[in-house]
């Protein structure tokens, strides 16, 4: 081609081949060769690279038109080299000048990420058109179809759980956490961070399964919020979109977690009876469960709760019935009611609620009003103080009389002389005076 023109395509192919050759040479350098002995080869590599760079400067504007599609070819070539040291792959794939310091501190994690990721899962194409309005704390919540291209939503939805997890790890390790609050002042670093936020968000938002809270915390850490604050001053609209993407991801995960929590209550005798309230269903427990209980347990348990826990069977279980005198406690347990096992079931319900608290906590940091979400979360059952008025004329014991004479006699025997109580006919009586 002496004396002729060199097309941009030919030159980009030349650069691609050179990068592959350069990577292979660096990866195959024997460990025992000193820098001095390797210097002639390194000088040749550097000189060749300078020559290629000089050739490329003749028409930068034309080259830019074909750069994007050929960069993908280079990326695929680098990632696809099985014998190349993954750390060298990372350095070639990541043009960020701060990458070497990040790599030194995170080498094992970067190695794992690069070994797992597929090329298609490492790329993200942002929206070309602006949103109808800039997301704000007062505006309606945007969802994945509004915040990402249709193609990105479709690709994320079609990924397997493993592919989705790899894509999130790549975005977290090599974009979100690679940048610092200071580096996002530079446009290229800012774009890298925002691309990582978008890539992680779309994969989390479309996931039908829960990501670990550790993974999400690794994305939404204190540094991430500092970076978002800095970007808010430099480019408020892009920062608002990034926050909206993260909110969408968190709300999606909250819905998955809520569904999981609801499923765990299906086989439980603890029922959600109001906004954030959970109570124990004594009637259902008497009818079902692995270990059947005697029907007499219902009036025994209910009456004991009325006497010592202001009528709350739930509070009595949470307290493991510690206020009950030994005789009454033995009567309840002899009928098949186990305070400890029912308390274990309650702990499982409470644990699910604790898991759910993670999401409004993170959403609040992103500026979202989470009052409605927090109000719906299950709250711990409180154990009331003993009511000194119980058993008096003002508050007679509301005994749940049964059709079982033996059970009724046990409950009556548990009253002290002088205690006021409600009789089977609904009238108030005093033990020892009827």
Task: Provide an overview of this structure.
- With 434 residues, the protein is mostly helical.
- It has helices at 8-27, 35-56, 60-79, 86-93, 99-116, 144-147, 150-158, 161-176, 187-205, 213-219, 222-234, 236-266, 282-287, 297-308, 313-318, 326-334, 339-356, 358-365, 371-376, 405-413; strands at 270-274, 277-280, 420-422, 428-430.
- α8 (161-176) packs antiparallel against α9 (187-205) and α9 packs parallel to α12.
- It folds into three domains: 1-93, no CATH class; 103-254, no CATH class; 267-388, no CATH class.
- A hairpin with a 2-residue loop joins β1 (270-274) and β2.
- The radius of gyration is 34 Å and the shape is elongated.
- Residues 83-88 have low confidence and may be disordered.
- It is built from 20 helices and four strands.
- Strands 1-2 form a two-stranded antiparallel sheet.
Kindly summarize this structure in a few lines.
By secondary structure, this protein is mainly alpha-helical. It has helices at 8-27, 35-56, 60-79, 86-93, 99-116, 144-147, 150-158, 161-176, 187-205, 213-219, 222-234, 236-266, 282-287, 297-308, 313-318, 326-334, 339-356, 358-365, 371-376, 405-413; strands spanning 270-274, 277-280, 420-422, 428-430.
